[in-house]
Amino acid sequence: MRKCLRIFFFMSLLLTVGGRLSAQEVPIRDTLKASVIEDARIRRSVGIQVVESAQIRNQVSPMGESDYIKFIQTLPGVSTGADGTSSIYVRGGNLGGNVVTLDGVPVYGTSHLLGFTTALSNDVVETTEFQVGGFSSDVGNLTASHIRLHSSEGDMRAWHGSGSVSNFMVSAQADGPIVRDRVSAVVAARYSPLGLEFGLVDKMIPEISGLSTLIYDVYGKIHVLLDDRQTLDFTVFRSKDDYRFTQGGGTQDRMGWSNLIGRAEWNRHFGEKVELKAVGYWSSRASLQAQEKSVTVDQSMGGILVPAQTVKNHFTVCDSLREVSVQTQVNWLASDRWSVSGGVQWRLGLFNPGASSSYSGSLLQPEHSTSISDNRMTSNTWMAHAQADYQVGERIQVRGALRYSLHRTSGNYGKNIGKGEFSLLGRWRVADGIGLEGTVDHLAQFYHTLEGLPLGWSLDMVIPSDKDFAPEMAKQVYGGLYGDAEGHSWSVGGYWKWMDNLLYFADGGDLFNASLGSWRAGVYTGKGRSFGVEVTYGYHGKRLDARLAYTLSKTDRLFDRLNGGEWFPAKFDRRHMLNVTGEYILIRRERFKMGVTTLVALQSGCWETVPIGHYTVPSLTGEVFTVDLYSGMNNYRMPTFFRWDAGWYMEKKSAHTKHRLNLGVYNLTNRHNPFLITYDAETKEWKQISLLPIMPSISY
Description:
This protein is mainly beta. It has a 24-stranded antiparallel beta sheet that branches. A 6-stranded mixed beta sheet has the order 2-3-10-11-6-7.
């Protein structure tokens, strides 16, 4: 864990002008007492929020450019993981219960730059839909939320280009016609010079040296207009994070993750009421963790000593998921009020979680490699789905969605699994300015994410459901009120959620561990429950846009092999979550705009497991051992989380160009929000680890 945190330290240092290391270890004897332990303008519709990428750009972030995850973290029902990273926990679900799709293709590795940003830039994403209830029938394999990203299409008439520079990222984008009025293209790429920037401050961080990185993402899309009724789309996306560094003592480490996606879609309209589309895609996700240590040893040959030799020991842990899918769907606008859709999908998943290998060498024995584990697994999933929508203007909206999946995993753990799912959605505008809304969902997820470090990195292992690990299940109900009047909008509602077949990965915190090859022994199956109240308020005026989101919730877990089989709080069960965002336009003219933005986040702390005391145990040899005494799992709530961000932006347009400058300050009050606590055996103190201090950012 400490090794991973050091990488956070130097990244923050790069941004802290004349500052100190971002991760602070502060004694917290006054906040941790053994005698006192706690037990326990966005388009919105029911269960879904829609936002354009242009609205996201104004948010302040450590990277200098915001993204869809940073926006989602300000919404109700969303608990965040480590400060500044891309991890989210929605309505009590796990991180792996959230599905991100780009034009319908799952993106399984979404983090970039150690989780500080996402692998998909705003140049690629045009619209983001965040759905937490009343799910549509066409996307399954989720139990928490669906983040549906819609890509932009190229201009059929003229070419356009853009570029940007921020603290850690350089990007460029272009779109335009290949064949005028027939074929358009979009290309976008980003690259991070992080390794070069680290070279400027590497002497200030003795724990790590020789950092080299390869961090980039590339996107391309071709849109073909065959005729007035038919279109073809071809998309390719590639992202990569690769980090290599040397620790004290000469240990060389490497970690990284990547995505590769290819997609083709054919779309055909029959008249004005029927649409048919067929989609095929390939999605590949991989992660790698490797460590090499050189050891000098004395050797002998036939009783004769020979010079000391350096022996290399190399250990690698890999995880991969490759998925191929073919699907077709029909959409029918039956009348002004009724619409019906349905389709079928087939998925082939190739998994290899926790595959590991090692090699070593010496004078007497040439360098050789050994495969410690190979966990190849194959799954086939067939899905049929249908939904019907009934809508009367803005007064009534009703939706019913059904989905049935047949899942089969091959190999020693193979099993046929069939599951039915459904979602219901309803909205009734009772009178002007007020209405009722509600959702009901019964969901299944046929793969599991074995979560490790709670940083939002894409190093987690992904496994399919099989005879040992049944599909994750979730049942949830939401009901509430909503209203709007003269620029004001609001909603208040409550949810209840029950989760089954959740997995807890006991070895998740050990990045380099041979036991990952036999990960099954460290996986526990359990249940979860969550309930809460969600409140939103928004104001949209001529100059001011403001939004408030508040959540009061409680989330627990139950595992037979943990906490004595008793319920305990989930790690990111934050009782209170308040986010206030605002944008004020200082100057707005035809070709010039200037404004300021702000975000205030106030949340209850997450949970940690700490000892409440200790006792001594004598051994048969007369030695005395000290053993920690715990009152339970996640028995201490960390201090309250508070952060205030502030930003300023300016836009200037000319006849052919547009300039935009963003200046921001992340964590304006320099509060050292707690990430975790650790015990220092030398000083005999509890210390708090914080990740991010005050951090200025700039992007152009």
